[in-house]
Amino acid sequence: MKTLPRTDVVIVGGGWTGLLLAKELGARTSQSVVVLERGGPRQTADYFEGMDELDYAIRLRLMQDVSKETVTFRHTMKERALPIRQFSSFLPGTGMGGSGEHWNGMTPRFLPITFEMRTRTLERYGAGRLPANHALQDWGITYDELEPYYTRAEQLLGISGAGSSPLEGPRSAGYPTPPLKMGYFPTLFAEAAQSLGYHPFPTPSANLSTAYRNPDGIVRPPCQYCGYCDRFGCMVGAKAQPTNTLLPVIRRQKHVSLRTGANVRRVRHQDGKATGVLYVDANGEEIFQPADLVVLASWTLNNTRLLLLSKIGQPYDPVSGKGQVGRNLTHQANARAPILFFDRPLNQFMGSGANGVTIRDFDGDNFDHSGVDFIGGAAISAPALGYRPIANFGVVPPSVKARWGSEWKKAAIESFDRAASFILAGEHLAYRTNFLDPDPTYRDSHGDPLLRMTMDWNDNERNLIRFMTTKMVEVGRAMGAREIATPPLRSYDVQTYKSSHLQGGTMIGPSPENAVLNPWLQHWQYSNLFILGASSFPQNPSGNPTLTVLAQTMRTADAIVSRYLKRPGPLA
To answer: Which terminus of the chain, N or C, has less C-beta within 10 A?
Structure first.
């Protein structure tokens, strides 16, 4: 094993959060910072030569290689978990920029109730409304504390939007750029939703509506509405990505260095302090990187797995309820929403990753839950993402019974630009039975245990989705849809895509008795260890997590620069 010279800060993961913290430290301190990314290097120029749907969207060019490392899955503790052989329900990215390269750009703020959901639910509805096996808890921070950082994150990315919804939290500033040009399907949705008394507004988007210069001086051009956002890197740079927003700044910083092909396997620690990280480089050599400050900024599952493999903290035991590491696994309750069939073309080939209209009338606690059989809610959106010829072909209305042959082909061709689906982004509560732990059987290419997911929807999510489906059908009929297909709700599965928004495992909280991290994303027991990203979420709100994890990272960066580096130790 080779030991390298000590660095002040080592950051594990070269995605949104890791690169954002590196940029902040590089700009505001003289600390030596090393960023370790296990994938390869990337830059905006990599996407210039064409957008191959088969390569990127079907063969998943930007995603983690499951032949080297995957996870195992089961619904309950009574089942044996089996390895996921192809990522489908979520898509972890790899390489410099991580999932921030292939995301679609939706950037809602979480509602204020998100951060105090347990307290506010008890106050309004009483303990009887909480599911019997829930593991809900407050975050230890409030929307008001995070709001200034939401504004900074929106300015960093150049979020396109309009005004503010009366159903969201207060804002200290408007959106940096105007909303995107609206697609036809979202326009129909906005008119129908408004006629029903709802409050539609343009979906906040990290795809620029106009040229924009951010506070770091980075200039990006406007969106071309090509429809190749989700699962692709943007070939013109209109979609905010780490490679076009953060890397140009980092490359000018003399104290920050980036290393790719560095697969971190352990956090070394001694006497309650992290001492550095052990990784395997691209040549297979084991390297130890000593550091005074260690930051885990990889994806949700990888952050949790590193703590478990490194034996940092007490692993969660679902039988006794003791332990924190691995608790509160959640995944956005993003079921297959109703598919609407129209008698006219929708021009679905034009769009962008976050182009659309959203209503939050049924999100969080924006409506009275006294008469429904669930808590929480969902945002409902009508997108214009850009239909592509391979992935989006083959959807036929319920009236077509054939599943192959000439009748099916004719219906599929006719329906290709006359069918569209809503996006349902629902809350997933935390439960004692949904968690992460090391798999006792299966191992990765280095011989380490794979991470095991134990998770299923509970009645709260099933009832929520059933309720939201009736609302979506109501709006769909007001839009003039001639047929509506409502896919059945089944158990959680790993075969159909939902989102890459997995949360939990290293959650924050107001005390070490109920959390891995304090509200500053600092480990409760290891004060020189910070963990960034959605693994810190105690449960999953409805909205996409990227804007919130960037806001949290900015807040943590401020605390490190203004407090921790001046007097290293606990911040809470």
So the answer is: N
Strand-pair partners of 383: 356
Inter-residue contact 277 to 36 (CB < 8 Å): yes
273 phi/psi in degrees, rounded to 5: -130, 140
Estimate to the nearest angstrom the gap between the alpha carbon of 431 and the chain centroid. 19
Provide the H-helix boundaries in 78-228.
117-125, 143-157, 184-195
**Active-site residue, 134 included:** no
Structural domains of the chain sorted by starting position, each given as residue range(s) with its CATH number in brackets? 2-47+54-564 (3.50.50.60)
Q: Which one from 102, 134, 501, 523 is the annotated catalytic residue?
A: 501
Indicate the SS3 state at residue 273.
strand
Specify whether the backbone of 386 is left (phi greater than 0), alpha (psi in -120 to 50) or beta: left
User: What is the reported pTM?
Assistant: 0.96
Whole-angstrom distance, CA of residue 90 vs CA of residue 79: 21
In 3D space, the residue among 253, 242, 328 whose CA is nearest the CA of residue 20 turns out to be 242
CA dihedral 457, 110, 121, 89 (to 10 degrees): 0
Q: Rg of the chain over CA atoms, in angstroms?
A: 23
**CA within 13 Å, CB half, 140:** 21
Per-residue pLDDT tens over the stretch 423-468: 999 999 999 999 999 999 999 989 999 999 999 999 999 999 999 9
Question: Who contacts 405 (Cβ-Cβ below 8 Å, separation ≥6)?
Answer: none
Tokens 């804002």, located at residue? 171
Angle at 49 between CA 47 and CA 55, to 5 degrees: 70
Q: Are 263 and 282 within 8 A, CB to CB?
A: no
Cα atoms in the Cβ-side hemisphere of radius 13 Å centred on 44: 17
Distance CA 434, CA 376 (A): 18
Q: What is the pLDDT of residues 380-434, one digit of tens each?
A: 999 999 888 898 899 999 999 999 999 999 999 999 999 999 999 999 999 999 9
What percentage of the chain exceeds 90 in pLDDT? 87
Give the 3-state secondary structure of residue 530: strand
Beta carbons within 10 angstroms of residue 398's beta carbon: 11
| Nearest by Cα to 431 from 271, 278, 538 | 538
Whole-number pLDDT of residue 382: 96
Cα three-residue angle 302-306-310, rounded to 5 degrees: 170
User: Cα dist. 449→20, 348, 445 in Å?
Assistant: 30, 44, 10
SS3 content of the chain, % helix, strand, coil (to 5): 25, 20, 55
Which pair of tokens denotes residue 474? 């109501």
Q: How far apart are CA 187 and CA 177, in angstroms?
A: 20
Instruction: Please give the span between the terminal C-alpha atoms of the chain, in angstroms, as a whole number.
Output: 36
